[in-house]
Amino acid sequence: MAEQKIFAGPRIRRIRNEKGLTQTAMAEGLGISPSYLNLIERNQRPLTVQLILKLSSVYKVEPEELQADAGPNVAALREVFADPLLAGELPGDVELIEVAEAAPNAMAAMVKLFRAYREQAERLTDLSDLLAREGRATSIAGARLPIDEVRETFEKRPNHFPGIEEEAEAFATLLKPGDDLLGALKAWLKAEHGIVVRVLPVATMPNWRRRYDRHSQRLFISERLSPFDQLREVAMEASLIRMSVAIGAELKALKLSSDEARRLARFELARYAAHALMMPYKPFLETAQRARYDIDVLRSRFSVSFEQAANRLTMLGREGAAGVPFFMLEVDNAGHRFRRAGARGFPQARFGGGCPKLAVHAAFGQPGQIIVEAVEMPDGAEFLTVARTLEGPQGAFSERPRRTALLVGCDIGFKDE
Question: Considering the domain 9-66 in this protein, what is its CATH number?
Answer without folding.
Answer: 1.10.260.40
